[in-house]
Amino acid sequence: MNCVYLSPDEGIGGDLLLFIFVGKSKPMISVHIADDHAMVVELLIPVINHSGIAHVTGFSLKLSECRKSLVTEQPDVLLLDINMTDGNGIVFCAEVHKLYPRMKIIALTGHDEYSNVILMFKNGASGYIVKNEAVSEIIEAIDVVMHGETYISRHMEQMIRKTTTTAINLTPREKQVLQLVSKGMTNPEIGKQLKIELSTVSSFRKKLNMKLKATNPVGLINNARKEGLLE
Questions:
Q1: What structural domains does the chain harbor?
Q2: Is 195 left (phi over 0), alpha (psi -120 to 50) or beta?
Q3: Rounded to whole angstroms, how far apart are CA atoms 151 and 142?
Q4: Degrees to nearest 5, angle at CA 214 with 50 and 102
Q5: Using one digit for the tens of pLDDT, what is the confidence trace for 107-129?
Q6: Residue 125: helix, strand or coil by DSSP?
Q7: Is the model's pTM score more than 0.70?
Q8: What is the mean pLDDT of residues 167-185?
């Protein structure tokens, strides 16, 4: 909280002293873009910078460049293309997640194979967006993952729902986490309740979203009820 002092000769009559308390603005989310298509990068930078919630702190056209930039930049969010000219983004995702576990990784790709979604989330990604989606989804995804949730683009969500339905088996711990999510508890609250690390809670949430084909808490709870996993 900042305090601004105005003396009488600054427009306040008599001996009146005015103190204005100004709240600190919410810090902008820093984003790095790793994509080998320069036109995509050029399109995304102004969209993100004018979003009001995030700004681009750097971009890379190669994974080798990205690897070097992340050492000093360490953004909040990494938008990562799966297929780069000098390497595999899925493998690189695991590398980045291991080095910077707090960094949120969102896959930004032209590939909509369900297997890629599974692999990216397994390797530590928090979001998956297909490039033919509206650019507004990228801003939504950045906001969602920074709140500790996972994000899957609407296109991929529809594809996942069309896949063959199979029996959903949850581990005892996954069932516990699901129950607490249904009660409206946040990740920190769940971690405290179950006495597990926040990163572990996030991991369970990702697995639950994938198993129940959900992209947000409301969808997770609704789908769990449809499957008879919640009353």
A1: 29-162 (3.40.50.2300), 172-226 (1.10.10.10)
A2: left
A3: 9
A4: 55
A5: 998 877 777 888 899 999 999 99
A6: coil
A7: no
A8: 89
